[in-house]
Each structure stands twice: as C-alpha cells, then as structure tokens.
C-alpha cells in the first residue's frame, strides 16, 4: 500500500456519510451494545444523568441543557425490556441534533480511543474565525498522529524518511470528526489496531511537556534527550509548533475506549496536556537539536536502480535506488565512481538489483547514502527479475545520462 502524503486529509467522520439503513452505523445492533459502554460514552461526551429507576435504567439528557429527547439506558441486560430500551436509545441518538450524539455512535460502532485537540483561536469580527484555521488544525493533527505512529516503530530524535511509509499506512483506519472554526477536532483510533499509537502519543506528549517545563526552569535542554525514549522527536515538536502557532494556547486530551479498558501504565482519565505560545521557542530549539544530533547510520542496502545521471560519458555519477532491504526508507540517492556506476548501469539493464555499503546520512532526512562502496549485482528469482525489467521498460525516461543538470531530489 502506498502511504498517504502528510497533506492528504484523514478519513472524515463516518457518521457524515452513513446511511440510515437498519443495522447501519446510525443504527448499531442493540443486541450487541453493552449498556455500560453506552453509559460511559454518554458521560464522556457531556450527557447528563438525571436519575431513573434505581438498578434498572438511567435517564440521560443532551449536554449543556440542549433541547432534545432524553434517553433511557438500561443498567444491564437483567431485564426483558433491555434490548427494547437500547434500541429506542440508539434510534433517538441517530436523530439527535446534538453533535456529541454522532461521537457516541462512532464509539459504539468502532470501539475507539479518542484523541481530542482544542485550540484557543482569537475570534474575528462577530465571532468569525479565519478561513484557514480549520486546515491548520487538521494539518497539525496529521503531523502529530504520524509522529506517534513513527514512535511506535522505533525511537529516534529525527526520522526523516525512515519508517514513514508503514507509519502513514497505519493511519488509514483513523477517523476524524468536524473541526468547526479550527478550534477543536477529535480523532477516533480503533482500539484493536491503533492503541499502541495512542499510548505512545500519550506518553510522548507528557514527556514533551515535562521537558519544556525543565528547560524553562533551568535553561537546560537535556530533558529532551531523555524524552526520545518516550516518543518525543523532531516530528512531534514540529507538530506541536503547528498546533500552537497563532493561538492563545492548545491542549490534547486522550480518552480510552470503554469496551477495551485502560491500557497498562496509563491513567483511567488522563488530564489534558496543555501548551502555550510561550513554549514555542523551546519547541523550535528542541526540534533543531533533534534534527542535527541524530547520527548517520551504517547500512548495507539492496535496491533496484531507478535513475542514473552523470555530466558526461565517463566519470562518477548519481544513482537513485528503490530500497528493497537494508533500510527503512523507500529510496536513497548516492554518488558512485566510474566503475561502480558502470556496474549499477549493467545491473539495471538486465533487471537485477544491487547491494551497496555506505552511511545513511541524517542531514538530508536519511535519503542520501555517502561513502558508497562494494557495489555488486544481486541474483533474484525470475519473477522478481521480470518485474524489475518491466518497471525499467515503463520508466526509460528515468534511466538517463544526460547533461541537462536536472537533479535527483525526491
């Protein structure tokens, strides 16, 4: 699966596109709904419990005193009418005008950990907000979720291109709600597949908050070094800068899926993690520190040659490889001497990948291999060789030794 670009929208709130067909998302099967889970979700999203028959059912009213039908939710399934009450409650939720009703339905349809972002955005005339506030919030959320997904795969101060494809692919199941005015947004991360992401992001945000407080109290940045193990990185600090910039403050709140319980080592009701404009200089300094302190990595890469270029018929040239094994990046570029360049060209022409030793440089986002040596063709199975040859034939314009000066940047 190709990874989605960081600026590609996350999946919209599922209720927006759901149909009202029986058994659809707007009508979860009452026989499969746990009354305790429904009650926990109503409480989380601001519905008020107003009493009811003790030990039999509870009455819930919409949040904020909003007008609307109240819900009768059974305490358990001990009574014969529990399925009927649940069915009526779900029907009322699907017709409710309260925005939180949609969130409750999502939590029932897809047991999810919820990550919520809220920002104090200065209001414009008559309470209006700038047209790009919502997109700024969504962009910051995308960056932060990707930073959490990267931290699930490895701990690093700066990832660059490493692990990016599988990390981005893991966000495919994440659902998001509307972001009115760019002030608030909630992501629903399925607990069965996405909980490691939410747990890692939860720990990383607290570690970032503590490292900021330490720096502002002592002037030292060393707490950010220790915070890498918790998941803090250049990518996370950049996401936090994007979240807070242009606001009077922002906060991130995590709520665990009631059906999945509380993960080990986490509070049942985590407090929001808050950030302010005063944190921005520290976050920017930490991001630069991570960017320049992450070490380059010795690697032995196997890859298929996809581009070649040099300024003349002889001498060294630049080669781009599609990485097959040896590094968690999709492509690398490298400069080869004349003999190694010739070997890479011959391997490409006969449909063989090459193996090369070198140093994966951090400064370019781990996209460049320096000190490349020991370039040798690698034998592969016939099916893979045929595929490589077909790819070469479809991309002959990439296989060039022209003098136009075009570079090989991604």
Please, could you describe this protein's structure?
With 410 residues, the chain is an alpha+beta fold. Helix content is 37%, strand content 20%. It contains twelve helices and 13 strands. The strands form three sheets. Strands 5-6-4-7-8 form a five-stranded antiparallel beta sheet, with helices on both faces. Strands 9-10-11-13-12 form a five-stranded mixed beta barrel. A hairpin with a 7-residue loop joins strand 9 and strand 10 (317-325). The protein starts with 13 loop residues before the first helix and ends in a 16-residue tail after the last helix.
N/C terminus separation: 19 Å
N-to-C series of helices and strands: HHEEEHHEHHEEHHHEEHEEEHEEH
Structural class: alpha+beta
Number of helices: 12
Mass-distribution shape: elongated
Question: What kind of sheet is the major sheet?
Answer: 5 strands, antiparallel
| Strand element count | 13
The low-confidence runs, each spanning 5 or more residues with pLDDT under 50, are 1-8, 13-26, 396-410
Order of strands side by side in the largest beta sheet? 5-6-4-7-8
> What amount of the residues lies in strands?
15-25%
Tally of individual domains? 3
Give the integer mean of the pLDDT values: 84
Radius of gyration from the alpha-carbon trace, in angstroms: 26 Å
Task: Please give the share of residues in helix.
Answer: 25-40%
């Amino acid at each position: 699966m190709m990874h989605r670009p960081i600026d590609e929208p996350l999946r919209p709130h599922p209720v927006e596109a759901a149909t009202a067909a029986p058994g659809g998302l707007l009508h979860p099967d009452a026989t499969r709904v746990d009354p305790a889970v429904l009650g926990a979700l109503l409480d989380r999203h601001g519905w008020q419990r107003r009493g009811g028959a003790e030990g039999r059912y509870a009455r819930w009213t919409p949040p904020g005193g909003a007008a609307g039908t109240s819900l009768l939710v059974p305490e358990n399934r001990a009574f014969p009418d529990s399925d009927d009450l649940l069915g009526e409650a779900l029907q009322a939720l699907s017709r409710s005008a309260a925005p939180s009703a949609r969130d409750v339905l999502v939590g029932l349809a897809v047991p999810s950990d919820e990550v919520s972002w809220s920002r104090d955005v200065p209001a414009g005339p008559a309470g209006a907000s700038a047209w790009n506030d919502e997109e700024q919030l969504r962009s910051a959320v995308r960056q932060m979720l990707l930073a959490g997904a990267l931290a699930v795969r490895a701990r690093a101060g700066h990832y660059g291109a490493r692990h990016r494809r599988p990390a981005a692919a893991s966000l495919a199941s994440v659902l998001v709600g509307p972001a009115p005015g760019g002030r608030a947004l909630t992501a629903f991360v399925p607990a069965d597949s996405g909980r490691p992401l939410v747990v890692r992001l939860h720990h990383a945000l607290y570690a970032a908050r503590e490292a900021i407080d330490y720096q502002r109290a002592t002037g030292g940045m060393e707490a950010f070094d220790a915070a890498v193990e918790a998941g803090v990185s250049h990518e996370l600090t950049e996401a936090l800068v994007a979240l807070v910039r242009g606001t009077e403050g922002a906060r991130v709140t995590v709520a665990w899926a009631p059906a999945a319980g509380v993960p080990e080592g986490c509070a049942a009701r985590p407090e929001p993690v808050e950030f302010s404009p005063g944190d921005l200089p520290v976050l920017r300094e930490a991001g630069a520190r991570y960017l320049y302190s992450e070490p380059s990595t010795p690697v032995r890469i196997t890859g298929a040659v996809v581009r070649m270029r040099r300024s003349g018929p002889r001498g060294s040239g630049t080669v781009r490889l599609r990485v097959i094994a040896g590094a968690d990046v999709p492509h690398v570029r490298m400069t080869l001497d004349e003999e190694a360049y010739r070997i890479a060209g011959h391997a490409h022409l006969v449909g063989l990948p090459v193996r090369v030793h070198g140093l994966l440089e951090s400064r370019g986002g781990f996209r460049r291999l320096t000190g490349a040596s020991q370039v040798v063709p690698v034998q592969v199975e016939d099916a893979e060789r045929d595929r490589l040859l077909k790819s070469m034939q479809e991309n002959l314009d990439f296989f060039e030794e022209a003098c136009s000066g075009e570079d090989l940047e991604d």
